[in-house]
Amino acid sequence: MLTLGDFSAWITVDNLPLQEYDPKIKGSEIACWIPSEAGKNFTVKWMIKEHICVITDVYLDGKGTGGRILRAGFGGTDHEDSKSGIYTSPTSQKLFLFSRLDLTDDDAYLDTNHTQIGEIKVVFHEGVVDYDATFAPSVFQEPEKVHERSKKAIDHQVGLGTEEQTPRQKFSCCRRLRPLATMIFRYRPIDILQANGLVTPAPESPAEPQVGEKRPAPPEDALDPTMSGDEEDEDDKEEIEALEVCVCFFHYRDLSPLVLKARLAVLRNKRRRTEVKSEPGVKTEPGSASFRKVK
């Protein structure tokens, strides 16, 4: 939401306000950037805290869409109003729509002024209502073709979408006495805003491995939950020494300690696997196996 004094304005898509970037104030004017998406309808909303008669005009790409009137005495309590389309009758309107530029290489369009394409402007005036009036068709024009050399990093423009029915509207003629505030929303596709450093791209989350793809190996200092560490090594060492004594005793007595020999072989093989390390300077050839003790 842009706010200047007693006036605020914002743009919504799907009933949600668009994020505003890099707002800047110059006198009675405030401007920002917003992301646009082709094919999306949008609504211009505003709020007024004044007690005087205020006329709010909305301009799209430099073209007027008509105004809305807040009569004196109705403000002061966060009075909200909005405009979401061009009235085609007292009971119907065509909705505002972000659309792609209609590009052409016809040089007849080369000198056409497109400096205000990509801009939504809301202007607040103090005004006076002269008299009630009947409906008159809007002079708002559908988007024109744009020469491809006049594009200047602008991919979208405002068009009109589907027609919908609305409650019956009243119309009045009024005079604008003095400007109170101006709010400008410059719209661009989100990737253009990111490319110009106005929006920071969201960090990408690491992709999950696909079926058949191996998970990356853990870092060397990662804990290995399958091993219990040095305590198990010490226990094995003590058991080996005890078994060696027993085996020697049985041999001395000319007995056959098959069970003890089998257990001793298992423990010796286990220690041999965990203690083998690559010698410094020795290159491991492809297909060869090496083992490293995980600390």
Automatic annotation (TrEMBL):
<feature type="domain" description="DUF7918">
    <location>
        <begin position="11"/>
        <end position="198"/>
    </location>
</feature>
<dbReference type="InterPro" id="IPR057678">
    <property type="entry name" value="DUF7918"/>
</dbReference>
<dbReference type="Pfam" id="PF25534">
    <property type="entry name" value="DUF7918"/>
</dbReference>
<feature type="region of interest" description="Disordered">
    <location>
        <begin position="199"/>
        <end position="236"/>
    </location>
</feature>
<protein>
    <recommendedName>
        <fullName>DUF7918 domain-containing protein</fullName>
    </recommendedName>
</protein>
<feature type="region of interest" description="Disordered">
    <location>
        <begin position="272"/>
        <end position="295"/>
    </location>
</feature>
